[in-house]
Amino acid sequence: MSLPIATGRIQSSLRRFLDSEASGGVVLMAAAAMALAVANSPLARAYFQALHLYVGPLSLQHWINDALMAVFFLLVGLEIKREMLDGQLSTWSRRILPGAAAAGGMLAPALIYLAFNAETPASLRGWAIPTATDIAFALGVLSLFGNRVPGSLKIFLAALAIIDDLGAVLVIALFYTSGLNLAALAGAAVVLALLFLINRAGVKTLTLYLALGVALWVLMFISGIHATFAGVLLALTIPIKLSPGAPEASDAESPLHRLEHFLHRPVAFVIVPLFGFANAGVSLLGTSISSLADPHTLGVAAGLFAGKLLGVLSVVGLLVKLRLAQLPATANWTQMTGIALLCGIGFTMSLFIGLLAFDDPAVQDKVKIGILLGSAISGVVGSAVLMASRRKISRP
């Protein structure tokens, strides 16, 4: 595979990551809004029929959710590996605040969802839906404030969301897998072992890794484990050139950086918005105030809005009080509250987990409404809090 190679040293992978995710988040917002508009227009029937149109062995929606999203998860895995080994999360002192905040931000929403759905055992499968933060959407909202929000908070939010993504990946692998095909799973293990072997042998040819990655995806798909998990596993085997004391290795030296840079734009501006357009469309016809009181809808919406706020803010507050960590540089508590609220934007990963948790289209629609409602409230209130913080700081 021939990927573009940058010359010289790369100034900041994290800066490019933040810019790409923020811009992609704006595109994702537009895609979600368009999906809602189409699903509630005369084009609704054509929209839903197109998603269920079969292209080869899979429907169009499954190609998007199972194949294209594997590329999304590949990028997620590359970002996690880079940040853990050679980035903002490379030391425990840097991991403790966003890591603990991410854990609190997953636990509290799950408990709130379970509280709303405790009387319906079948509904408990959705406990993980409100635990995820959509990094592109959240950074997209945050980008609207430009340099009026400290850069340290943007890095904190990105780090928290990356760790959150890692948690979501583990949740999907452990709790949303059924009907295992042991022969295919064994084949996937052999391919994965081969990938690690060529990594250890110092092979840097991306074409070989990606070819084996396709085989891994096919075997994972057959095995019963969600095929997108193959993207994360493949990412763990891609070679990376560490650069202690320097911004990062050049593309020519590090296959991981080269692949990550190559994937950023297609994932941010094509794959994730396409996923949003294919899955955010839900008909609101017949939706009433009483229907919004459904436990699935309320559990997800309250989990995202209240759960993320309580989970993230309480953990950060505890760590700061115990002097185990400090607030990000130049940030104040009002701004941290706004960031905690933006963590309640759980669009992409929440939709993905919702589709895995429930097969019933009616329940999926209730979950989608909860995701849209909780994410919208979190985004609006979080933005208002950040605006209030800006006015407060600007006063003489």
TrEMBL record:
Compartments in which it is found: Cell inner membrane; Cell membrane
Keywords (A to Z) from UniProt: Antiport, Cell membrane, Ion transport, Membrane, Sodium, Sodium transport, Transmembrane, Transmembrane helix, Transport
Pfam family for this entry, one: Na_H_antiport_1
Segments traversing the membrane: 21-40, 60-78, 99-116, 128-146, 155-176, 182-198, 210-238, 267-286, 298-319, 339-358, 370-389
InterPro entries according to UniProt: Na/H_antiporter_dom_sf, NhaA
Membrane topology, record value: Multi-pass membrane protein
Keyword Glycosyltransferase carried by entry: no
Described purpose of this protein according to its UniProt entry: Na(+)/H(+) antiporter that extrudes sodium in exchange for external protons.
Family, similarity comment: Belongs to the NhaA Na(+)/H(+) (TC 2.A.33) antiporter family.
NCBIfam families according to UniProt: NhaA, PRK09560.1, PRK09561.1
Protein name: Na(+)/H(+) antiporter NhaA
Native organism: Rhizobium beringeri
